[in-house]
Design brief:
Largest sheet: 5 strands, mixed
Order of helices and strands: HEEEEEHHHEEEHHEHEHHHHHHHHH
Structural class: alpha/beta
Helix content: 40-55%
Length: 417
């Protein structure tokens, strides 16, 4: 079977025919060159308006990179025609295997974009003997097509969170769809201000916003303000992970302060190397760590008392009744306010301020999973780490949409990967 026969089966272009196939040697290795000719009755189409017109002249042969075959580079060779268009004037023709001035065929771009989900962009460029810029353009093309054809119907639950992507408190606001059977990245915005989230709701549209039933976020004030203004009808649920994170930060702050105080007073450093013993959940501690914690309890240290208060809060998430959960929360806050541990008191005051949103967790239980927001955030951070960071916002925006957006792809006769 000839290569031309295979191409006619998997990559046939209407109005064009494949010519001779030549295997040539170059400095970089073997190269397959496939000639393409227009059909005798094929009139060139204007690249501006897409209308067929008379041929004006032909340009020198131009090469388009195609998907490699057995590790051999493949190029299409074609003499582009210019069209004498009645509307646009003299323009280069439109060809079905490539767009604009791209040196890669569209098929090859989709091939690179799919591999860019599995490997880093640099690794894809090295494996397929191309440049990082070509891989970036391929991924940008795939993201642009997918964003233009994405289906936004039926979204009932969204999650809002932020990640730090550069030093100096440079943040991204990420909005996810967290419906039961469909979890994906919907939108990315720079910074984490009120204006940022307002831009999302304007992009999302009034009708889709009105269809939202659940919104999950942390306690960042700009997010709470915008959600209350734009989607007050939806059940706003606070993310359980961030509440646990605030408690862990409070315990660590108490431990650091107490370590410095013990050293200043010349007392024995009981809390040395005890950070993770205090921060771990009880079921994750080893036997030695449980023994060490039991020994620390005898010394009535504030860090240990803060840990016990955190563990005393855990039954809160097991309640089924909103009223009983609210009563438990009120009682726990009273105990914390009497503890004279300022970082934990700060957490208790924060939970009191957001009491209605916190109790919404029980109203939405079983219908959405707030943990999926943090899971998607971890994937977003992994995408950044895999690339060793991104210098520009456009690069990280394209990378995150490509990895987490579950964007659609065009239907083709053959998928190369």
């Amino acid at each position: 079977m000839q290569i031309k026969t295979i191409l006619n089966q998997i990559q046939k272009h209407r109005g064009f025919v494949y010519g001779p196939v030549q295997l040539t040697g170059q400095s970089g290795g073997l190269v397959l060159v496939v000639d393409i000719h227009p059909h005798a009755r094929n009139r060139p189409r204007c690249s501006g308006c897409g209308r067929a017109g008379p041929q004006y002249d032909r340009l020198p042969p131009r090469r388009f990179a195609f998907v490699p075959l057995w590790g051999i580079a493949v190029f299409f060779l074609y003499m582009m025609r210019r069209v004498n268009c009645a509307t646009c004037g003299v323009r280069v023709e439109q060809v079905p295997w490539a767009d604009g001035k791209h040196q890669l065929t569209t098929t090859y771009q989709w091939f690179l974009a799919r591999w860019a989900k599995r490997l880093s962009w640099r690794e894809v460029a090295q494996v397929f003997d191309t440049s990082w810029d070509q891989v970036f353009r391929a991924v940008a093309m795939a993201v642009a097509w997918g964003r233009a054809h994405v289906d936004l119907h039926g979204i009932a639950a969204i999650g809002i969170d932020e990640i730090q992507w550069q030093r100096g408190h440079r943040y991204l606001t990420l909005v996810y769809q967290i419906d039961g059977g469909h979890k994906r990245l919907l939108w990315i915005g720079q910074e984490r201000r009120v204006k940022t989230l307002l831009t999302f709701f304007h992009w999302f549209g009034r009708d889709r916003t009105a269809a939202l039933r659940f919104i999950c976020s942390d306690m960042w004030k700009p997010y709470l303000t915008v959600v209350a203004k734009q989607a007050s009808h939806a059940l706003h649920v606070l993310d359980r992970f961030h509440i646990a994170q605030h408690m862990g930060d409070a315990i660590d702050q108490v431990r650091r302060t107490e370590v410095h105080d013990l050293r200043r007073r010349g007392r024995q450093p009981w809390l040395t190397k005890a950070r993770w013993i205090l921060l771990k959940r009880p079921e994750h501690r080893t036997r030695d760590e449980r023994t060490r914690l039991a020994d620390l309890v005898r010394h009535n240290l504030k860090a240990v008392r803060a840990t016990l208060l955190r563990e005393a809060f855990e039954p809160f998430w097991t309640y089924r009744s909103v009223d009983w959960a609210g009563a438990f929360l009120d009682e726990w806050c009273v105990q914390v306010m009497r503890s004279q541990i300022e970082p934990m008191k700060k957490v208790a005051r924060m939970l009191r301020r957001h009491r209605p949103l916190l109790l919404n967790w029980f109203r939405a239980r079983g219908q959405i999973s707030s943990g999926s927001v943090e899971g998607l955030n971890n994937k977003a951070k992994l995408t950044t780490r895999k690339a060793y960071g991104f210098r520009s916002y456009r690069c990280i925006e394209i990378a995150l949409y490509h990895t987490l957006g579950q964007l659609p792809e065009p239907k083709v006769t053959h998928r190369f990967c």
